[in-house]
Each structure stands twice: as C-alpha cells, then as structure tokens.
Amino acid sequence: MKEKGITVGRVLDGSIAKEVEIEKGDTILSINGRAVNDVLDYYFHAHDEYLSIGLLKPGGDRWEIDIEKENDQNIGVEFSCTGLETITSCVNKCLFCFVDQMPKGLRESLYIKDDDYRLSFLQGSFITLTNLSEKDLKRIAQLRLSPLYVSVHATNPELRQKIMGSRGAGRIMSQLEYLTARGIEIHTQAVICPGINDGAELDRTVSDLAGLWPGVRSLAVVPVGLTGSREGLHPVSNFSSSEASVLVDRVRGWQDGCLKSFNYPFIFASDEFYFISKKKIPSRSRYADFPQTENGVGLTRLFMDQWSREKKRLPQKSAVPLRLLLITGLLGERVLEPVISFLNGIENIHAGTLAVNNDFFGHTVTVSGLLTCRDILKHKEDLSQNDIVILPSTLLKKDQKIMLDGGSPADIEKAAGVPVRLAGGPAELVKIIMNAAGD
C-alpha cells in the first residue's frame, strides 16, 4: 500500500527545515512515529518540542531527521496548494445550489463542489456535514479543528433532507451537539428561500442553534441567489422587498433576545437583506466581532465606518482635473452614494458610479463580486470618458487578476483606453485618488 505523506512545496530561508536539509519536493511521511496523511496531521503532530520526522526524498531515499525546537515553533516548511492530495466533493443536490446555476463555458475550477471539513478549518469554507462518518467526527474532535463553518439551512430533519437532497442531512443537530460538546466552535449559515425555510421553520432553526450557544457561535441568514440559468431546476423565488423587510425585523427581534441572554447578537442578516428591504444598515454594535464578513455580513457597516475615517485624508482641491468612475453592482450603488457626494465636493474632481447589470448570470444577481469583464465592457464608451476607472477587488479570484469570465482589469484598460485601478476598501480608494490628484 502506497504511503500518503505530504509534499513540501517550499522551505523558508533561515528556518530549521533549511538547516536540516529538508527540500522542496520532499515528502513528510511521519512525525514521531505517527503517519502524516495531510496538512492537518502535520500541524497537529508538529507542535511538539522534539520531532522525529520520517522523510522520503524524490530519488527514493528515506531519511529520519531529529529536531529539537520550541513548543509550537514552525520549522519553516510550506506545502503545495492546500496541502491536501484530494478534496472531498459535495454529493448533495440542494434546491438552490449556485454551481448548478452557473452558465456553461467557464473555467473548470468554478464547477467544483467541495464539501471538505479540512477546507472549512483551513480556509473558512462552508460545509454541510452530510458526508461525515463517525471516524471523521472523531478526527475533528481529536485534532481540535476549530472553528468550522457549517451550512445548516434548516434544523427540521425532514425539511433539511428535502432542501439538500440527502438522506444524511437530517443528522445535523446530533452532529453539532457532538462537536460542540468536544469544544469545537461552529459558525453556521442558512440560505433562506421564501416559502420553504423561512417563517416558522426559521424560528425553529434559530431556536435550535441558539440552544447550542456558545458552541454554535453565530448564525448568518442569507437570501437565496438565483441566476438566469435554472432550466430544469426546482422552482425557487427571490425575496421581495416586503418579505425581506419582515425577515430583517425578525432578525432584530432575535438579536434583542440573544443580547439579553448571551450578551451577543448571535444571528445576523447578510447585507443583501438590508439592500433588498431598503432598510438602514445596523450600527456597529449589532455586528459584535463581525464573525461572518466572508459571508457578506457587516461588510457595508465596515465600509461606511472606514470611509468616515479615511475621507478626512483627502485634499480640498485636486492639483489636476480628475474624472473618476467607480464600478459596482446594482446593490452597491446605494453604498457609494455618500462617497460620490463627498468626492464631488472636492474642487477639480468629478466622480460618478456605473452600476452594471449582470447579463452574464442574470439580472437577479446584483452583487458586485459576480460582475464579469464582458458586462463591464458593454459600457466601454462610458468608461473611456474618465481619467481613472476603479473596480472593487472582490471581482477577482484570490491571488489572481482574473474575473469569473476569464477577463481581467488589463483587458478593460486596453479596450477602454483608460487606467483601471483596484480598490479593496476606502483606504485603497483614498490612496488611488490622492496619487492621481497629485497630493
């Protein structure tokens, strides 16, 4: 049987690993006699002060390396990709699966459905727990893989099985009880579909999950995302403004109860619900420690607060005339209104927004992060009338300057003949403007 091990992708200069001649391409097979099958095994076993590392060299030689170090000191190795040889795929058939609604012809990686508890721990991705065995649960507890991020959607066993198209989905509460009882912190989400898992069913979900506080640390409720490519899929509707308004009010009521019981809000509505309902974004205190920003919860509040601070750095007058265009999805236009108003109060600056319709995914998709190069370039003439076009950095794949349709900011810059800059928030936006204004 072939030994698994984990392949070293990089050795840091000046590190212990460099000193003992561990090299890129080596495979770590064991630590202190215990097998290392993936990056989680490595991190768990490498905490000890004394390490005996079983190493396989690319040429087939086996080394045994003894290391003495400080407890928890990193020996200085990094691993290829995620450090996982294979990724566990999702076998659910959710009514609202976004991957099933993706247009054809995109890069293959966008169609991958992962449901791997190791990625949840390492990268914060949401998992469903439907594919976990008893052995998996025990390993999570043994390795203390905390926090984890879990898509719950509903705690009613029959309803969750229906929503997710999986018989194993009904075990969610017993799984969460097992993990939280062993010190694993869980952040949860529920993608809400009108008429399916809202109303009384959402009441039950909130009550069940809050009953596991503080093990279950937070619950984010997110509106279902529907594209224009749902042919043959289960009928699901978007939230109307009035339906979203009712949900936002209920979230506030639940928060009031949780603040009284836990001194923590516990449940959070995603920013999109406030935009759909046209309700005011809550104050900072309603987001506590902002536990689910990656899920679109509280990002607008953080943006607004940061803008209030950063705008004070801008000059009263630009040294040169400057026309700025900020690209956004339809929902983001509301957030940028006070930004544009302030910028237009600076002498020699004219600023505007371009809220782009999402023809690629469908007009029901209104968030900025899912805009594509081709939809933005449909406004090429508008872009070319400006000195600088500013894109939100959420348009790009992490660590790569590429958008969902394979286009790039460089493509937009070339086609429109205007400099394109990326801003991840108010601080970067202000820096771009100050550089262009000659300040």
What does the model show?
With 439 residues, the chain is an alpha/beta fold. It has three domains: 6-79, PDZ domain (Pdz3 Domain), CATH 2.30.42.10; 99-297, Alpha-Beta Horseshoe (pyruvate-formate lyase- activating enzyme), CATH 3.80.30; 305-436, Rossmann fold (3-Layer(aba) Sandwich), CATH 3.40.50. Helix content is 32%, strand content 19%. It contains 15 helices and 14 strands. Strands 1, 2, 3, 4, 5 and 6 form a six-stranded antiparallel β-sheet that branches. A four-stranded parallel β-sheet has the order 7-8-9-10. Strands 12-11-13-14 form a four-stranded parallel β-sheet, with helices on both faces. Helix 7 links the parallel strand 8 (186-192) and strand 9 (216-223). Helix 8 (241-262) crosses helix 9 (271-277).
Outline the fold blueprint:
Blueprint: E1 6-11, H1 16-19, E2 27-31, E3 34-35, H2 39-45, E4 50-56, E5 62-68, E6 77-79, H3 117-123, H4 134-143, E7 148-151, H5 157-164, H6 172-181, E8 186-192, H7 199-210, E9 216-223, H8 241-262, E10 267-269, H9 271-277, H10 299-310, E11 317-328, H11 332-343, E12 347-355, H12 373-376, H13 380-384, E13 388-392, H14 409-416, E14 420-423, H15 426-436
Parallel strand pairs: 7-8, 8-9, 9-10, 11-12, 11-13, 13-14
Antiparallel strand pairs: 1-2, 1-6, 2-3, 2-4, 4-5
Helix pairs in contact: 8-9
Summarize the structure.
The chain is α/β, with parallel strands linked by helices and about 450 residues long.
